[in-house]
Write a structure and sequence with these properties.
378 residues; alpha+beta; six-stranded mixed β-sheet; four-stranded antiparallel β-sheet; elongated; binds zinc ion
Length: 378
């Protein structure tokens, strides 16, 4: 049987700050091969930013359940600020300390520990189990989960359902399952006017006035009033810049930056069109660049979410709330292919100094993952 804490310690001792791996995926692969998984390594990315990924599968039948996670971590910052070496994996006072303890080497270790318990009781389980473990989640997220999913699709490995093991629990283990995430859209707009003397505005074209006229209707009314599983979408002007220090000159150029966090009533394409309409209506000569870091998605409550919820309630004694809050995660990529939810440890200290997770929680999380496998593979 695999011990969640020992495995988490082995993973924390690999200094896998993105894009480095430092043996973390080797640790995972060795354990999974011992449990009968066929493993494929999938390195992607340019030579100066090579990241490694692992796809592992046991069985070939349906239903195919996939657990997704990442072994890369954010840098520790100043190691001297930590009580212990951030890569030592020290256990003290019932807590496992180290970079990745909570986000999310602890989660991966708990899943594999729960998996080993499940397999001991169900050596000939129905369906199949896979793990998609990436080394490129914390930084660019370009050569990780998204690329592995393309490979999986090309090789007939798309699962029927997936669970991302990010630390979603808030106060106590089991209190939150994420069933969707908001989308995020950035826009950078430049309006070109005509520079001139502020005493003779008729001979100039003030780009600030056009910017204000374009932004005002976008800010005047909410984008929506929320949906059953999402809060209202939000639009924030996050930058407004004309670079002018002369009070009697109308500047030639005005720039603005906009960030929209949007729910399942919108797509980035439709929001971009809405922005264009506002700038066109203001009569502006403008250019706009946009970047969507993820569309919104929702795995609507149904048999999959219910089975997860029941298994978590049964093993933790806590009935999880269904939530869509927070930023983006790799679930946004998986949602394009199959139903996906997120459930994991209590996420109190991710990316912090003295990142840690409760040892008792790690064992209880392993038990919850075992119960999830038993509930979904039938
Ligand atoms: Zn994470």
């Amino acid at each position: 049987m695999i011990d969640a804490v020992e495995l988490a310690q082995s993973l924390i001792r690999c200094r896998s700050v993105t894009p480095a791996d430092d043996g973390a995926l080797d640790v995972v692969q060795r354990v999974l091969e011992g449990l009968g998984f066929a493993c494929t390594r999938l390195p992607f990315g340019p030579d100066d930013y090579r990241v490694d990924n692992l796809f592992a599968r046991r069985g070939t039948g349906a239903p195919h359940f996939c657990y997704a996670g990442h072994t890369d971590v954010v840098p520790p910052g100043d190691p001297a600020a930590w009580t212990d070496d951030p890569f030592a994996g020290v256990v003290r006072d019932g807590q496992l300390f180290g970079r990745g303890a909570c986000d999310m080497k602890g989660g991966i270790a708990a899943f594999i520990a729960g998996l080993s318990q499940y397999l001991a009781a169900n050596p000939n389980h129905p369906g199949s189990i896979s793990l998609l473990i990436t080394g490129d989640e914390e930084a660019r997220s370009v050569d990780g989960t998204a690329k592995v999913l393309e490979w999986m699709e090309a090789n007939g490995q798309i699962p029927d359902m997936a669970l991302v093991g990010e630390p979603t629990s808030k106060r106590v283990l089991g209190d939150i399952i994420k069933i969707g995430r908001r989308g995020s859209l950035n826009a950078w707009v430049t309006i070109e006017g005509k520079q001139g003397h502020s005493a003779y505005p008729a001979a100039a074209d003030n780009p600030i006035h056009r910017m204000v006229a374009a932004l005002a209707p976008l800010l005047a009314a909410p984008l929506d009033n929320g949906t059953p599983h999402f809060p209202p979408s939000t639009l924030q002007v996050t930058g407004f810049d004309v670079g002018n220090t002369t009070s009697n000159v109308i500047p030639a150029i005005a720039r603005a930056m906009i960030n929209i966090r949007f729910n399942d009533l919108h797509s980035s394409a439709h929001l971009i069109e809405r922005l264009h309409a506002a700038f066109r209506a203001a009569g502006a000569r403008y250019t706009m660049e946009t970047a969507c870091s993820g569309e919104s998605f929702l795995t609507a409550p149904g048999p999959f979410v219910q089975a997860l919820s029941d298994a978590i309630a049964q093993s933790t004694g806590v009935t999880p709330a269904l939530d869509t809050g927070g930023g983006t995660s790799d679930a946004r990529f998986i949602a394009r292919y199959c139903p996906v939810a997120e459930f994991g440890a209590v996420g109190e200290t991710p990316h912090q100094v003295d990142e840690r997770t409760s040892v008792a929680d790690l064992h209880r999380l392993a038990e919850a993952y075992r119960a999830i496998l038993a509930a979904l593979l039938r």
